[in-house]
Amino acid sequence: MTAAVKSVERDADVTVLEADNIVGGISRTVTRDAWRFDIGGHRFFTKVPEVEKFWHQILPSDDEFLVRPRLSRIYYNGKFFDYPLQLVKALKSLGFFETLMCGLSLMYYKVFRPKDRSTFEGWMIARFGKRLYKTFFKTYTEKVWGIPADQLQADWAAQRIKNLSITKAILHSIPFYESKEKVTSLIEEFLYPVKGPGMMWERAAELATSKGALISMDSPVVKVEVNNKLAVKVVFASPEGEKQVLCDELISSMPLSELVLALDPKPPTHVIEAATKLKYRDHVTVAIVVPGESSFPDNWIYVHDPRVLVGRVQNFGAWSDQMVKPGTTCLGLEYFANSSDRLWKMDEAELVDLASNEIDLLGLAKKHEIITGFVVKMPKAYPIYDPGYSDHVRTIRDYIDQNVINLQVVGRNGMHRYNNQDHSMYTAMLAVDNIYGASHDLWKVNVEEEYHEELGEIATGRSAPIVSNTGSNS
After folding, report:
1. What is the pLDDT of residues 61-78, one digit of tens each?
2. Distance CA 131, CA 98 (A)
3. Which of 30, 38, 48, 244 has the most beta carbons within 10 angstroms of its beta carbon?
4. How far apart, in Å, are the Cα atoms of 184 and each of 83, 157, 159?
5. What angle do CA 368, 373, 376 make, to 5 degrees?
6. 103-138 b/e with 16+ CB inside 10 Å = b?
């Protein structure tokens, strides 16, 4: 949608093929009986000026954004820990012995660092020690990704939390401590559309179509025909049957593996094999409605408890009171699965019952107080950073660069990269610039040395990506 809006601004003839029946992808907002809920939670903060400008172009009224305080906690061993870490509270909750053991573990691994720090587990132990890692990172991470943490590549941690350390977390818990180097997990507030992130994309779709763009819903891509190293035609399945659209330029945010398999003629065997080896994690949101007095103040709670399958619990009423009916709130229990899992195959009633039992067990709400529940399943929500993924992506990238020169991939699934919303949008903006003569390297977005969620002036910033722009005339 970002690419569509930026393209129609240049008077381009634009067609958007949307596989789903709603725009926004994982950034959508789902509405059920006047309750609105976000898929995965989307905080709006950025240091990319073009993205910030775009947000306010799409939602220009001051009352369309809320400035929300960040409040999240970790649930571990029947207790809640503030996140970011509050030193005194954490020590009290962990107890003297456990705190001592965590400290000793931290010191040990600062001296005797893990030999293999290419995995998430090795990287985290080197930074936090094994005991703190197991307490605050291992369980949740393995729920999200569905693979042992020693098989998940460290790229994900390095991208998401690279500047966070126990030392910084402790310093930030000390009153009056100030530092110019503040990091992602310590951000204090963020922007949020009053009716959820989907409000942004619904409005963007309206803007794009008002300027001539054609948006075809329920239209998954079937085939991308390539001739003379150019994508010339896209075949898609519409509700009215198979259709096609000719193209001069093609920007794709569909899963990278599916894009490769749609190319015609088919790429060489090694490229097809690379595509089939890319893996994704599916996402299930079970939204349960409870009385307002059963609410909690957090935006979300990370659940580090092996007794339950739920990984995180959102409180949509804490994001915006316009997301819920008066007197109620909506809690979103997030589950992570593979399409072959029993969890993914459960029907709505089974999933609502599972979520109701788990929210009761955690003590966040009483099962008998639950008013109703809804389920939304999002396939391929998260690209998995398993061993070999980067080689597979490189193989595909090299093939496209050399053999489909008017095709650009953008976004999280399009690049098989765990980008945040603003970085995904930025890749789309730069892709449009490239069509008009720039030479941005989209793969340079979100690989900056400084972490991408530093505090900005209002504590909602993210560092601007370093982008190769050699030869650009934009």
Report:
1. 989 999 888 888 888 888
2. 9
3. 38
4. 12, 12, 11
5. 150
6. eebbeebeeeebeebebbbbbbbbbbbbbbbbbbbb
